[in-house]
Amino acid sequence: MQFFDNDDWVISSAGGVTGEAYIAQSGNEKIFLKRNSSPFLAVLSAEGIVPKLLRTKRLENGDVVTFQKYLNGRELKASEMKSDKVAHLLKKIHTSEPLVFMLSRLGKTPMTTESILKECHERYKNRKKNPAVDEAMTFLKRTAGAADSSEKVVCHSDINHNNWILDEDNQLYLVDWDQAVIADPALDLALLLYWYIDQEQWKEWLENYGQPLTEHLKLRMHWYMISQTLLFMFWHQDHHQPKEALLYEKDLLKLNQFSCRYFESYCN
């Protein structure tokens, strides 16, 4: 596929699930290309959340290719997710009105606990019954109202440390926004804190983020952690990845124990 008007550039795959990302190199110059990126990318670039968007180009077949600055950087290590830089960038994302405005214009509607519960139910109803899933679903149903929040922001929803890139100038970026949603910020906070931060350090990390650790936030985060673990497990089952699905099932068992320990009134 012809991305450039001359043959000076060598194009190679950048990997990824979709196969739509490429790296172009000419001499010492490198550019990151992606086919059919969302227009949301332009706002992310303007906000300094992703590497600078250089230009876009429409190909003869109708595809649109984005050209971004290629970073000489590295992915964060899991141990670095507790850093102030991560907390501050995530807070910047969660308080950005332009991001919410643009994602709304692209047709995204705010997610609620009820809409997520409905998705979990639809994804589970035709599967083999599983006691751990039944217990988790019961908790989600009982707490959906209490765990809902009127605060809706743009959430990345794939907070894996591999999506955080630190460049050679010590500038941090969050990339791979294909799963972005408008939702309770507790969705992102849950994934980050449960996966990467010891519970004893949640209060301190959230202070750097700019949010007190209230009982309501604890419930909201736990609710989203259970719902997302279910959806991740279902996804791996649907893609015939039993080992990965089993890992999420083990996580679910631990979360269920946590539910009854800290949210006992909802488990009786």
TrEMBL record:
InterPro entries membership: Aminoglycoside_PTrfase, CcrZ_PhaseVar_Mediator, Kinase-like_dom_sf
Protein name: Phosphotransferase
Boundaries of every Aminoglycoside phosphotransferase domain copy: 40-211
Taxonomic placement: Bacteria, Bacillati, Bacillota, Bacilli, Bacillales
